[in-house]
Amino acid sequence: MERIDGEHFKVVRAEKKQTRNGDDYFILELTNQERSLDAKIWSQNFGNCRYEEGRVIEVFGRLEEYNGKISLVLESCQIVNSEEAVDFTPKIPTLVFDIETVGQDFETLDQREQEYLLNNLTVEVEDKEKAKKRTSLFAIFAMVAAIGGWDVEQNKGKVLMATKKEVKLKNKNFIFQSCGDEKQLLEEFWKESLKFKKFVTYNGSSFDFPFLIIRSGVNRVKVPMSIKRYDNNFIDLQEKIRQKHGFKLEFLCRAFGIDNPKEMGIDGEKVSELYQEGKFQEIANYVAADVTATVQLYQTWKEFMSGER
């Protein structure tokens, strides 16, 4: 795999660990202007590595993949002197985003599809009438109707929507872009995504990214990047802020004093109804509010809970 030789990174965190055999090794969380990654220092290279948390180091090593996660195996590293490091300010182009989906009407599904939805995909839902309204949760029975995104570095947002109509957004920090249909929406999103190195979502590893990937396949739209669940450049706040189970975003908003988008009287299940009624402005305002809440939660996590210095 790729080597990294002579590149500078800031050491965000350093932690000593042990292998199953009891051998010591170190994990470093590194970041620079281009990327974030974890680095490993095995015992044979302890003497070749000099580092401190909060300092900038020059690294030499190779990238390796294990269980779908990329990490840097350090052969050597050294602290960069203050004169060289004075202008080192890690800035990683970061996109916080959220998607809204629209499901097919249950009655339009054929009998096998209806049975599959009720008896397999929503088997835990006792109320079958409620289960029938959950087609929007499954990419084989639904489409991506809108995507809201916030550029953290540029401090501005955008809402993309699969409609030909123009919408005036309530939040002036967001601009609106109509994309005509789902295929054009996906093409525009993936094109925009290439501007970013880090992606922040709430439940994105289980829902948003898999949904986008499946719908891209259905529409024959190429996904331009490899999305790895446990890569530091793909942050799922639901996985970062959890106890035994992940919390719903609306309850974390209440706990952290963040404006709750659900208080607008809209939730994910209602989006399908609004879309069919042509109420695109309500959907656009909702997804912008959802993204704004996720941005505020991300800022809280990053400053107080991530362990970053």
Describe the structure.
- It is a single chain.
- With 309 residues, this protein is α/β, with parallel strands linked by helices.
- It folds into two domains: 3-85, OB fold (Dihydrolipoamide Acetyltransferase, E2P), CATH 2.40.50.140; 94-305, Ribonuclease H-like superfamily/Ribonuclease H (Nucleotidyltransferase, domain 5, 2-Layer Sandwich), CATH 3.30.420.10.
- It is built from nine helices and eleven strands.
- It has helices at 82-85, 111-121, 128-132, 182-193, 204-218, 237-240, 249-256, 268-276, 280-305, and strands at residues 3-18, 24-31, 36-42, 56-66, 69-79, 94-103, 142-151, 156-161, 174-178, 198-201, 234-236.
- Helix 7 (249-256) crosses helix 9.
- The relative contact order is 0.13.
